[in-house]
Amino acid sequence: MPDQEAGWRTAAFSMGCFWSPEALFGAREGVLATQTGYAGGAAEAPTYREMGDHSETVLVRYDAAVVSYGELLRLFREHHDPANTNGYKGRQYQSILHWTEPEQLEAIEAWLEERRLAGLPEPDTEIRELGPFFPAEERHQKYYLKRYPDAWEKLLGLFPSHAEAESSRLACRLNGLAKGFANRSALLDELERWTGEAPERRRELAAAVRSIRW
Ligand code: MHO
Q1: Whether domain 8-137 has CATH 3.90.1300.10
Q2: CATH 3.30.1060.10 spans which residues of the chain?
Q3: pTM passes above 0.85
Q4: Quick one: which H or E segment has residue 8?
Q5: Which ligand 1 atom sits closest to the C-alpha of 143?
Q6: Dist. CA 15–CA 48, nearest whole Å
Q7: Do residues 40 and 57 touch, judged by C-beta distance below 8 A?
Q8: 166-189 in b/e burial notation, b at 16+ Cβ within 10 A?
Q9: pLDDT tens per residue across span 166-195
Q10: Residue of the nearest CA to atom 9 in ligand 1?
Q11: Which atom of ligand 1 lies at the shortest distance from residue 16's CA?
């Protein structure tokens, strides 16, 4: 995961098995990087086999000028049922919103207040400030994308290292495509808006996306 760059926001979400939420958030324009990991507990050095009191979590870095926290919160709300998720695997699948800045907490509280006004019970979602986040094993990063060898190889070919490829914005989108949360022509349109990249680089990325055999 690259260091926090100027203007990048961070939020984290626990909502069951982390493979799918990584693809869900990664498909959104404005999301810059995603990583799966373990958070929400106190155990040191958790692993997939020995997670202790942590929960499967996806860390999301995003550009708030392109995608709001409210939009990410909407995806969280609409893509899991906190009660069932918790019941299925206990703390490993605990539903948690991990906020990192007051604006995020305000958005969460506004949602909770809306529910109360509608007479709904409190959701089975924990709300907490993001504490230590432990990245998951490599096999759990961009899990769906790695099921498509040609896509994965072509992504690797675009970056100087495995780590840079895996933590790239393009890896997020291709992982979203692999899981069916995004579509290819929308990605090709979006690539034209990646103005932080040189035009030549954008053409190279687009050519690689077009050439993938899924
Ligand atoms: N598909 C697995 C969960 C894997 S996830 C990383 C299952 O349903 O048991 O927790």
Answers
A1: no
A2: 8-137
A3: yes
A4: strand 8-14
A5: 6
A6: 16
A7: yes
A8: bbbbbbbbbbbbbbebbeeeebee
A9: 999 999 999 999 999 999 999 999 999 999
A10: 17
A11: 10
